[in-house]
Design a protein that fits this description.
The complex is a heterodimer. Chain A is mainly α. Helices cover 77% and strands 0% of the residues of chain A. Chain B has a two-stranded antiparallel sheet. In chain B, strands 3-4 form a two-stranded antiparallel sheet. The chains are: A mainly alpha, B mainly alpha.
């Protein structure tokens, strides 16, 4: 076992354990803190894949900004009472369907990974090879090959911002 | 000497560097607290701490002993582990920043070239942003775990302030990155050694960055998170002894690190002003690297003095003024700066023809 393999298994174990703890903790604040740990271990995986930009952006956006907002909401709503109200059946059913769809697509990606990317076949890490996760190639890909989807997604964000302002202005 | 396919000598070299840099930052932070009190005293026309040791130089040690020997109280209603985790996170996050700052050029020891930078990652500046946003968790967890509504409100206020000013800070940095074409701090400093310092290209960007750095470090006029007379004390109200010490100390380390980042990005980092550094290297070798470290530290001390000067001159903002300044002045200004920089770069690429 070499260093990258040790790191890989350590990070995978950490990610799985903390993801389980997200579901199992009674206190929503603890769940959020475990979720932050999940993001950290996933960022570690990105670094093992030589995708430093993705790793750090994952930390800034998800662990740094979105989770802080989660913490804000949970702290202000004071959910720490450990009470759970039962959701209705339709909510549960739609949750199961959405989760199932995600599971199917994830499995598809995992089982086809060796077909799609030859560099990854039979490896745990890509150190010093493969450059799509670095900032230069990623920026070029986003602004040359995928510029239309990129701009459309930014319009989506703009509409979300406008929506937030409208909701905030109401009172 | 290969075990686990690691370069063990490199590992030892980096470990030594990490220990030296962290101890040095702790030592400097210790004396920054002393400097703060002395600067305050001078500005307020009084002698300041002068009893412990010559000129009061042992005062920080006395403060440290006092902090350590005070009773360490964990409130009954507090969530114990998170209460301990809070100050630890704040301290860790502020110390982690030092990993990507280039503290000097290269030293040659035992036929090895040693960079005086722990890790020259190609995303250096983004790394600093990630670490800064981790620092918010220290504050939020500490405020929440105290189980005191005043601490909670103060921590929410601190976090929202930090998030708001991080945006403008990021936007002002984008303009610098468009000029330098790289995210690596080591590379940014090297570019400034041969050309002009970035402050020449980005005066407005620097001003925005500086104001945001004040807000990120919770320094006056943005020290709302610890407004003593409005909200008792702030997010660390329930803390005592060395846990409180960690929070206060983390703030000083943040100040040092943000000064080092400002010096590196805008003021040439370890570049010796008015001198060709390569020339100095050729004549005195390793000593040149040490001079460079000294020059960077001098720049850092200059910024820290500026921080203190502002703290003891300008009163604190009200909360709505703070948010208005952040969202309605800083962000539009930073966007304007970014647009102008982009337009000028495009014009220069087109040889100044429209």
């Amino acid at each position: 076992m070499n260093t990258t393999q040790i790191l890989f298994w350590f990070l995978s174990g950490l990610a799985l354990v903390s993801a389980l703890m997200v579901l199992l903790s009674k206190n929503p604040i603890h769940s959020i803190l475990w979720l932050i740990l999940v993001f950290f271990s996933i960022s570690g995986h990105y670094i093992l894949l030589n995708a430093q930009f993705l790793a750090i952006v994952n930390l800034i956006v998800y662990a740094g900004a979105i989770m802080v907002l989660f913490l804000f909401v949970v702290m202000l709503m004071n959910l720490s009472k450990e009470k759970e109200d039962q959701k209705n059946v339709w909510m549960k059913l739609s949750g199961i369907i959405a989760g199932g769809c995600f599971l199917v697509s994830t499995c598809n990606v995992i089982f086809n990974a060796q077909v799609v990317s030859k560099e990854l076949a039979g490896k745990t890490a890509l150190l010093k090879e493969g450059s799509i996760g670095l900032i230069g190639p990623l920026g070029k890909a986003l602004f040359n090959d995928y510029v239309v989807p990129f701009e459309i997604s930014s319009v989506l964000f703009l509409s979300a911002m406008v929506g937030a302002v409208v909701i905030g202005k109401k009172d | 000497m290969t075990l686990l396919t690691l370069d063990w000598i490199l590992l030892i070299e980096k470990l030594v560097l990490i220990v030296v840099i962290i101890l040095a930052s702790l030592g400097i932070a210790l004396y920054t607290t002393f400097a703060e009190r002395k600067v305050a005293a001078i500005l307020q026309d009084r002698p300041g701490p002068s009893r412990a040791g010559p000129y009061g130089l042992l005062q920080p040690l006395a403060d440290g002993v006092k902090m350590f020997t005070k009773e360490d109280i964990i409130p009954n209603a507090a969530s114990k582990w998170l209460f301990i985790l809070g100050p630890g996170l704040a301290m860790t996050a502020s110390l982690m920043t030092c990993a990507v700052i280039p503290w000097g050029g290269t030293i040659e020891l035992f036929h090895r070239k040693i960079d005086l930078q722990i890790a020259d990652v190609n995303i250096g500046i983004l790394y600093i942003f990630a670490v800064v946003s981790m620092g918010i968790y220290g504050i939020m967890i500490g405020g929440w775990a105290s189980n005191n509504k005043f601490s909670l409100m103060a921590s929410l206020r601190a976090a929202s302030q930090a998030i708001s000013y991080e945006l403008a800070m990021g936007l002002s940095l984008i303009a610098v990155l468009m000029v330098t074409n790289t995210l690596s701090l080591g590379e940014i400093v090297k570019q400034q050694q041969t050309g002009w310092w970035n402050i020449v290209y980005q005066p407005l960007g620097f001003l925005i960055f500086f104001i945001c750095a004040l807000a990120e470090c919770n320094r006056t006029p943005f020290d709302l998170p610890e407004a003593e007379n409005e909200l008792n004390f702030g997010y660390h109200q329930e803390y005592s002894s060395m846990k409180l010490g960690f929070y206060l100390f983390a703030e000083y380390i943040n100040m040092i690190m943000s000064s080092a980042v400002m010096a590196s990005v805008y003021f040439g980092g370890y570049d010796i002003p008015f001198v060709d550094d390569a020339h100095v290297y050729a004549s005195i070798g390793n000593w040149a690297a040490l001079i460079q470290v000294g020059v960077l530290l001098a720049k850092v001390v200059g910024f820290i003095f500026l921080f203190m000067w502002i703290r003891w001159t300008i009163p604190r903002f009200r909360y709505d003024q703070l948010m208005n300044l952040g969202w309605k002045s800083m962000i539009p200004l930073a966007l304007f700066n970014m647009l102008v920089t982009g337009a000028l770069i495009l014009l220069r690429m087109n040889h100044w023809h429209f």
